[in-house]
Write a structure and sequence with these properties.
This protein has 360 residues and is of the alpha/beta class. Helix content is 44%, strand content 22%. The longest helix is centred in the middle third of the chain and has 44 residues.
């Protein structure tokens, strides 16, 4: 999968700019705060329909403007594809090959991307929310069914939590079983798909980590070993919802379900969250992303676009070289301030950005 051309209109600090990318390594270079990360963000938005940096799309619109637009010409094993997102103050419109989509979920999977930046250390160092977010974003790119189940589960969870805050206890006890039946259906789908993904991810991440560290450390990613069908998971969850009902009523929110899941990540047997140094956390997070890249390639038959935002300056020389050798056959969009200091003559296309414009 390759992006041939990316066009930005009133997106972040870009007024009108068009990027042409090569199939291999593309380096966006320039001083800080010139727009390198904004370009990388635009690519990721066209893959997922969301930004990793902000919660409200209106923040993507250039100051003083009312609408932003991102579009890309993409080449995949299935042919050419045109993607476009028009972003307004209160809504957005998504297009594939000129056809407006009625459902945002249909935008997923047309182009896949793996994104890594220094902020991805949160995946290792922060709480369970970050690891669940990683799972949700990754699985949703290759499974619209998972994304749909996730959206429906979240909606039912919000309604159940609102019900738990009601003061009419008899009404709550009468209504909760109805919500639990619906919630268990989508929860079982999420749990089953997450387990399958982690079973794929775990050995790939361990191998990538061994490659980056020359085998000096061992990374393990916890995957649920329990063998359960979706129906068995659903039956178990219904029992757990029933068992936790009194606690949920007392606390005013749902304490059981996939929204409470975590993924155990360990280095040499020690939990990485509390044990890993900055360097170890960075390498572990990068290993997870390289494993994610391999999974996408296996599922879709072609590698996704790899986005590396300000990563090279955070790695020592041996790991930079190892990373570059690892991604030789992948289209990569890499941002850095000094390309010559981190790439050491690597064959690439360099694009210099200054003030939201491409300059010679």
């Amino acid at each position: 999968m390759v992006i041939k051309k990316l066009t930005l209109h009133n997106f972040r600090n870009y007024e009108d700019e068009a990027f042409s990318f090569d199939e291999g390594l593309n380096v966006l270079t320039g001083k800080n705060a010139q727009g390198k990360t904004n370009c990388a963000e635009a690519v990721y938005y066209l893959c997922t329909g969301s930004s990793l940096r902000i919660r409200h799309d209106r923040q993507l619109i250039r100051h003083g403007e009312s609408c932003a637009s991102i579009s890309a010409d993409v080449k995949s094993r299935y042919g050419s594809l045109a993607l476009r997102a028009d972003i307004y103050e209160t809504k957005r419109e998504l297009f594939v090959n000129g056809n407006k989509l009625s459902r945002a979920v249909d935008f997923l999977g047309n182009m896949n991307a793996v994104f890594f930046s220094p902020g991805e250390l949160r995946l290792i160092q922060d709480g369970p929310d970050e690891r669940r977010r990683f799972l949700n974003l990754s699985i949703s790119q290759t499974s619209r069914e998972y994304c749909t189940a996730l959206l429906r589960y979240q909606k039912i969870l919000d309604q159940r939590n609102n019900l738990l805050k009601n003061h009419d206890i008899s009404m709550i006890l009468e209504t909760l079983p109805v919500w639990d039946e619906q919630m268990s259906l989508y929860a079982s789908r999420l749990i089953s798909r997450r387990r399958a993904f982690l079973r794929q991810l775990s050995p790939l991440a361990e191998e990538a980590h061994a490659f980056l560290t020359d085998g000096a450390e061992r990374l393990t990613v916890g995957a649920e070993e329990r063998e359960e069908s979706e129906e068995q998971i659903r039956t178990r969850l219904l029992k757990e919802f029933d068992y936790s009902r009194e606690r949920d009523l007392r606390l005013g929110f749902t304490t059981v379900g996939p929204h409470r899941d975590d993924v155990k990540i360990a280095i040499d047997g020690e939990e990485a969250r509390g044990f890993a140094s900055q360097g170890q956390a960075r390498t572990a997070a990068l290993s997870l992303k390289l494993a994610e890249l391999k999974i996408f390639e296996t599922l879709t038959g072609e590698p996704p676009v790899l986005i590396l935002d300000d990563v090279m300056s955070e790695l020592d020389l041996p790991r930079r070289k190892k990373l570059l050798s690892r991604i030789r056959d992948v289209q990569c969009i890499l941002t850095c301030t000094h390309a010559e200091r981190v790439l050491y003559g690597t064959d690439c296309k360099k694009i210099r950005i200054q003030g939201g414009k491409i300059v010679p």
